[in-house]
Amino acid sequence: MRTPPVVPLKVVCMIDVKNVTKVHRRGSLEVQALRGVTCQIPTGSFAFILGPSGSGKSTLLYLLGALDEPSAGTIEVNGRCLGAMTTRERDQFRREEAGFIFQSFNLLSNLSAIDNVLVPFLPRGVSSAQRNEAAKLLERLGLGDRAHHRPNQLSGGEQQRVAIARALLKKPKLVLADEPTGELDSENSAAILAALRSLCREQGSTVVVVTHEPEHIQPTDCVIRIRDGRAIECPAGG
Ligand SMILES: Nc1ncnc2c1ncn2[C@@H]1O[C@H](COP(=O)(O)OP(=O)(O)O)[C@@H](O)[C@H]1O
Ligand SMILES: [Mg+2]
After folding, report:
1. Which of 133, 139, 162, 168 is the most buried (most CB within 10 A)?
2. Nearest CA owner, ligand 1 atom 1
3. CA of 58 to the centre of ligand 1 (A)
4. Sheet of 13-26: strands edge to edge?
5. 3-state secondary structure the chain
6. How far does residue 2's CA lie from ligand 2's centre (Å)?
7. Domain annotation for the chain: domains and CATH numbers
8. Which ligand number lies closest to the CA of residue 179?
9. In the structure, which protein residues have their CB atom closer than 6 angstroms to any atom of ligand 1?
């Protein structure tokens, strides 16, 4: 008798966090930033981690991107447990599967906008196809005529668009943004989030945005509310 073929379970959950705690240690000082967070983020969704300053939002985002490790609990991304990865697998995950966007843009001041977009590819050499892709992405973000400007010749909103292009060029499965509009006015913030939404929808990327401002949330978004290191409201959470 033949055994039936094993059908792999379809992963519908990009992020699955279970009972995660995080204690930050600075010298003898300990800060309990996360106190047992459980939450899930469906694949392909646009998610917000929402909560007041100091509630643990950035800590959670950094853990999702394997930029830091939890003190306890597990985090699965796209069906793989981050804690079970080797150092090399984690590096590869950060380099190839995750795209990071920070509040402070983090552009290199001596490089043009397009070269900043290409920074992740510089170590291995940039192909002309990648350069064309970068130019197209800048064009889509309304920066077609700014590609050869340096960061100090760009406004804050323009610099953040460059940082978004840099994060999206590798078509990451997961885009992680920490207060990406925190330094921008409300008009720029709305435009930037709209651009991030449409580009990520096209690419099929799952997006997680940390914010303390709820006004950009849409009804179909996945919202995880954090307070004092606990998820007080989230899909499938606790
Ligand atoms: N590297 C660190 N060392 C010590 N304490 C930290 C560190 N990072 C964050 N914290 C503390 O952890 C708590 C949560 O911080 P954070 O995750 O940055 O919150 P949020 O992003 O919601 O403002 C805060 O009390 C903060 O001071
Ligand atoms: Mg923060």
Report:
1. 162
2. 24
3. 7
4. 29-42, 13-26, 72-77, 80-81
5. CCCCCCCCCCCCEEEEEEEEEEEEEECCEEEEEEEEEEEEEECCCEEEEECCCCCCHHHHHHHHCCCCCCCEEEEEECCEEHHHCCHHHHHHHHHHHEEEEECCCCCCCCCCHHHHHHHHHHHHCCCHHHHHHHHHHHHHCCCHHHCCCCHHHCCHHHHHHHHHHHHHCCCCCEEEEECCCCCCCHHHHHHHHHHHHHHHHHHCCEEEEEECCHHHCCCCCEEEEEECCEEEECCCCC
6. 55
7. 13-108+172-233 (3.40.50.300)
8. 2
9. 24, 26, 31, 33, 51, 53-59
In angstroms, rounded to a whole number, what is the distance separating the alpha carbons of residues 44 and 173?
A: 9
CA-CA distance, 44 to 64, in Å (whole number)? 16
Task: Report residue 196 as tokens.
Answer: 């991030």
Q: Which CA distances in Å does 148 have to 33, 82, 118, 131, 202? A: 41, 38, 12, 12, 26
Give the residue, by CA position, lying nearest to ligand 1 atom 4.
Answer: 24
Q: Identify the residue whose tokens are 């709820």.
A: 214
Mean of per-residue pLDDT scores for the chain? 92
**Ligand 2 centroid, distance to 129 Cα (angstroms):** 36
> Atom 17 (ligand 1): residue with closest C-alpha?
56
Q: pLDDT, tens digit, for every residue of 154-210?
A: 999 999 999 999 999 999 999 999 999 988 898 889 999 999 999 999 999 999 999
